[in-house]
Amino acid sequence: MTKILVADDDKAIADLVTLHIEKEGYQAITVFNGIEALKAIQSQHIDLAILDIMMPEMDGYEVVQKIREQHHLPVIFLSAKASDLDKITGLVMGADDYMVKPFNPMELVARVNAQLRRSKLLDHSLGKNEIISGGLMLNSDERTVKLYGEPIELTPKEFDILHLLASYPNKVFSTENIFRNVWGEAYFGSSNTVMVHIRGLRKKLKEDENKNQFIKTVWGIGYKFNG
């Protein structure tokens, strides 16, 4: 059965979300703080997480950062923080969707279903060893890249960045998320390392000469692969 994590320190809201999740036929795992949420994800297979941001012990931002270090499960923020900046911050930190309280439970269920469908399609795609898009072909087993049939020599980190972005077409990654995923280390606030590698990738992909811009800058947020 599909397991949905519901993490909110407001028991009434957690119970309401749980009720509608279970009516949809999913199994709800309900917790009331960030530490419990992280423990649930580490101890069992969770298919999707619905997280409040302002939780005790560990807030939703930190929870989603910890999740993204090891997992790719969909995350929906459900928060009273309603400004555009709050929403952008939540998505940049690693959430896949953002809903503001008060909310329509049926809309939340619809968004859960949409994220689960997308996740299943993505898992199926990632099970293949090749990614093909607009004349670009990556083979993850051989760690090779071809552009319009011609081999491209990439450094290991360049390949890892390109593969990460191409595996999630149109998903925006912040420089911090790229650094954490590719280097596997804590991010210390400098985007220069990622920027240098992105610049090298663009040069090797001949983005100035070709119509396709594979790697797009999303100003103020990060980068995405044009899928």
Describe the structure.
- With about 230 residues, the chain is α/β, with parallel strands linked by helices.
- It has two domains: about 5-125, Rossmann fold; about 130-225, Arc Repressor Mutant, subunit A (Orthogonal Bundle).
- About 45% of the residues lie in helices and about 20% in strands.
- It has eight helices and twelve strands.
- Strands 2-1-3-4-5 form a five-stranded parallel beta sheet, sandwiched between helices. Strands 6-7-8-9 form a four-stranded antiparallel beta sheet, covered by helices on one side.
- Helix 4 (about 85-95) links the parallel strand 4 and strand 5.
- Helix 1 crosses helix 5 and helix 6 (about 155-165) crosses helix 8.
- The longest helix is centred in the middle third of the chain and has 22 residues, at about 105-125.
- The model has no long low-confidence stretch (mean pLDDT about 85).
- One of its GO terms (biological process) is regulation of DNA-templated transcription.
- One of its GO terms (molecular function) is phosphorelay response regulator activity.
- Its main location: cytoplasm.
- It is found in: Cytoplasm.
- This is Response regulator transcription factor.
Low-confidence stretches: none
What's the number of structural domains? 2
Structural class estimated from helices and strands: alpha/beta
Relevant CATH superfamily of the largest domain: Response regulator
Question: What spatial order of strands do you see in the largest sheet?
Answer: 2-1-3-4-5
Brief overview:
Helices cover 44% and strands 21% of the residues. The protein contains 8 helices and 12 strands. Pfam families: Response_reg, Trans_reg_C.
